[in-house]
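INFO worker-7 received task bundle
INFO bundle size: 2
INFO processing item 0
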Amino acid sequence: MSDNVLVRCQDLSVGYEHQAVVSGLNFEINPGDYLCVIGENGAGKTTLMKTLIGVIKPISGSLFLSPEIKKSGIGYLPQQNNLQKDFPATVMEVVLSGFQHKMGFRPFYSKKERQIAMENLHKLGICELAKRCFSELSGGQQQRVLLARAFCCTKEILLVDEPVSGLDPNATESMYQILEKTNKDGVAVVMITHDVTSAIRYASHVLLVDKESFFGTKEEFLQSGLEAAGKHFVGGHDHD
């Protein structure tokens, strides 16, 4: 096991109200990893992500977060929903909200935070949208805005839950390219996806969440024969 691990889960069980959705998870995330999380609807993938970001407490097992992660936080891009799409705020307000967990009792965002927010908009090619109302944007534009918000949360690790769901092919390919570049820039990426083909294309590691879970490198996953079994994990949103 790596000494500079960002996240390590050992015999982890996650769920709600003391009822486990999935148990026996063993995996770790290191700097520079690109981990794709696959599995059937209801298998526990989104529940796992919510546990990693601290929204849900683990039911049992061990969840280790590095001091760097505890200090800087985890960037999180959740699944799109209708409430999110209709959010009544400007693009800049949405992006700046990524700093809220670092503000403490400060009532206003700092000049540095505003600068970083604009840099993240520039990185995603959407500076011109800064003053636009978030609800007026296309699905692809909204995903970029929410990704810019996630970038404001952390420089270490980014969790994305079905980031291309509902996007057209061009926006889908653009999102994958952004995530790939983000990973190459040194940010660990953890992506829930039903698109196993793309998971294999971009991943360094794969986590299969199932009754018998699997964790390993992309090469180990391909050699395991589980790729064919994973092909049927397609369509729909997770609600686990």
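INFO item 0 finished
INFO processing item 1
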Amino acid sequence: MATEHTLSHGTAAPKGDRPLSVLIVRIGAMGDVLHAMPAVAALRELHPEWVIGWAVEPAWRELLEAECETHDVAWRFSGRGAHRPLIDRWSSVPTREWKRRPLSLNTVRDIAGLRRELRTDRYDICVDMQGSIRSAMVGWMAGALVFAGAADPREAPAAWLYKQKIRLAAAHVVEQGCELLGAAVGETLRPAKVTLPVDPAAERWCDALLAGTEERFVVIAPTAGWGAKQWPAELFGAVAAELARGGVRVVVNASTSNDEVGWRVVESSNRAATLVPCSVGQMIALIRRAGLVIAGDSGPLHLAAALERPVVGLFGPTDPARNGPYGTVSRVLRHASSKNDHSRHQESEHGLMQITTDEVLNAALELLRARQDKVYE
């Protein structure tokens, strides 16, 4: 007999003989997708029979190959281990490409095709975990009976499209995700562990890159979503040079071999650091083995946290109480003069500029020493 799942605010989930289907809309960027995954893992653990879909930028599709732990007896004894795929299906939402050619016929066709796909999948519940106008539009296209989002979303007009508006009280965005998704499906969710994918080809690439290297290496990720969150490349370079003098290998994460910011870090380190362009899968493999990651509020920082690697986080216009590294050993640096501001200015925020290379270096060495001590305990 089917069970009725009662939603918050008096909304009832659809009833029937089939499992419920839930669409997660969290298009990007990398950090945003990673922040939503613990809530989805919690839902998967609680309702392994439900169908979970995700609408996402194709660039982050590799992240969604993650697995989550499950206590579902039938799954454990099926010979497939104690892990389940995080999601059952995903839908490509290439908004970056659409933005480059908003009026082209191909864009119109892509959007129409996405709408047909989402409608065909017949989701019972859709949850916009991003809170932007574009994510709300994608969620609205799905036509789910229940369409939920935050009552106070990142972009206020997004709330106009929600059928269910959920007020959030949690401080950190990971916990807010559990609050939002939990209220939408009528359950209490707590952040669950996510196991990110292991790509054999990426592992072989990483083996070759790190041949002969001890685990004591540091990844510097110097870029961020917008300029105000980005500590100057020259300062990252100075930190890299000092670490190298102490015998620590430093690699600089980059999306391409022509990464301008990454090269400025390398040059400022007197080439003590090495630029390492990598795909998402390669970045996962590299950071999984790192002794430490130094970064601003960016995708690589949150990837390191998801992989439970030690991190030094450099924060300026974004609040680490909301966006800081979650679930790992960390040292977060933020100057007292920094103020929350999501205006996406291109110049480094004034408070962020007050963080000194000595502060970053000391935090890095403290975490490296702590890790080394733990290894030899």
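INFO item 1 finished
INFO post-check item 1: Confidence is low (pLDDT under 50) at residues 1-12, 73-81.
INFO post-check item 1: The chain has two domains: 8-195, 200-375.
INFO worker-7 idle
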